[in-house]
Amino acid sequence: MSAIEATISRQGGLSRLFRHAPAIFAVTLFVSALLLFAVQPMFTKMVLPKLGGAPAIWSVAMVFFQAALLAGYAYAHWLTKLPPRHGALIHLGLLGLAALSLPLGIAGGFGSPPSENIEFWLLALFAVSIGLPFTALAASAPLLQRWFASSGHSRASNPYVLYAASNLGSFAALLTYPVLLEPLLTLHQQTATWAAVFALLAILIALCALVVASGVAAKPETRVAIEKPALGSRLAWIALAAIPAGLVVAVTAYISTDVAAAPFLWVVPLALYLLTFVAVFNDKPWISHATVARVVPYLVAPLAISMLGGEKAFWVVTIVLHLVAFFILTLLCHGELYRLRPAPERLTDFYLATSIGGVVGGVFTGLIAPNVFSSTTEYPILVAAAVLALPGAFSSGVRSALRAMSLPLALSFILLVVHYFAEVRIPISWMVAFQVPLIALAVGILFSKANPARMFGLVVLAFALSGLWQPGQASVETTRSFFGVHKVADSADGAYRLLFHGTTIHGADKIKNADGSPVTGRAEPLTYYYRGGPISETILATRAARGKLTSVAAVGLGTGSLACYREPGESWTFFEIDPEVVRLARDPQRFRFIASCAPDMPIVLGDARLTLSASATQYDLIVLDAFSSDAIPAHLLTREAVAGYLARLKPNGVIVMHISNRHLELSRIVAAVGASEGLVTLVKTDMSARKLVNDYKSNAAVAALARNWQDLAGLSRMPGWQPVMPEGVQPWTDDYSDLISALIRKKF
Fold first, then answer.
1. How many CB atoms lie within 10 A of CB 365?
2. Which pLDDT belongs to residue 45?
């Protein structure tokens, strides 16, 4: 490097580089962050097919990303102890070593996931596959800022503003991924482009090292003894970083559960999270800290009384509320974080502490909470904790704050005890009356703006009231697995037993007659599976064409409703990825379908793409009903997936896909995928079930695919079944999918 320096120095090049140091460092940080945050949705999308497209994949991925960020920050903290010249050589060597693992891909040795401890298997997959390049990139932000602070440049006194450039690059990566990269490039093309930009980054970092070397050579760094940060300051940094880091995982899981486990949804909360750093890590923040604090109650109040309720009729408004509230609460925490920042000499200490906070928040939300809470309790906990970041929460001391929040916290505890020991059912007719105390709590939150501690207590009370009781339902059991939260509840009149995933009913069993006596005998399929509905029609038409169904594969178990369509002499097999769903469906105290209709029916546990392909059976009918809430496992709708189903389908067999969805238009995608494999498609959107709260029969959109029209002749003669042509829609593959276009087609 000294020879290069000498050559450039003779031409006056270094002095010109030094004058432009802020721009050079800003561009380098921008490119580094662009790479760092483009790899997150890109690589996670590669992993999705291995685990059934579960939203929890992103939660665990975020834990890995936060841990790798901590490793990168710790490495940068150590590297800044060395002279910049030596540190640059080491860092460039690490980048070169990381380049050997490019292009990015899933490392060998990771086949089918285990049935237990999936989270740790997934963390290992990420670490082995992308751990080194991700950690090397993560070190860039604190390392380059510290180099700039020691450069002797006139603008080096506040290197924190460069963090805004870094996060602007992160924001740009997340914004362009769903809009440009995912729709236009296959995964193979994305990884090739990423590798090329990685090589460019190495050149830019070498240039930054030259700039710093010239500045240090011209004006040797004067080291000033700066007192180490106090323990209280470090803990404050960790806490203020942990809350938003946990919130970004929680709000992402909340949104993706009801739409899709897809990168285009994951990147929105993460992009907003990064945008808050750009907004506040400035000499002049975009929004003043005082303004943010004033806005918080107006967002937290409606969130506290609506988050844990039932079905969200206005899902767009709900998502916008959650995202705006998340953005403001994150601005609040990060604004406090910037206010408490140390001198530049302690910059890497600061970033190390914030990355520890990121790991704490990620581990709590992504690893601990799913194994401790039976529902998504971590989300309201983090929202309430963010309220305590408001200025003045503890200005009068901890004891004063505890007194202010004690009454609402005590009432919350009483509600919890009552719910646990007493079976209280609130009929749907009491809905308006039930809203009155919730509205009163919202007003109380707004009037507690000057007392954040009291506001915290009222927020907790609102969450307790809205979460423990819902008019029209009586909770029976809530269970949680890696693949989601499942709630078993009874209707308020006790006549129906319901299974919820997210805000969607995924099965209903009538358990009491009108006179209150228990229902006996064979269970009757309801919701999407009611007799006369489109799913029922596909089964009956295929059976009629063949005389009987020798073998049937059903992907997605739910309550087991489809088991009651099995007739004597027929062999039906269910394929289910979630062991908790299997437990609920097999328990006759929960649902009666399997117990009363097919107690001996086999259930194969695992991702159906793998387990169905491993089956030796040829099926007359394959029914795909694997959606969780309205989130779709996109990997089950790709060309490769359909090719796997065809390998297990008899020559005149039929594939049935349940494609009901409030947010995505799937019929043309299914038709395009089917056409690419030589299949024809009929679709029916049912509109005849109109009294869900009375009879629990649900409308469904269903697609039927076969190798020729003759195999669908029985369906084509039934009302409502229409052929669907792809109309220019590109078929999805494991290498390409475009959910955002499906969302646009549905809405417009």
1. 28
2. 80
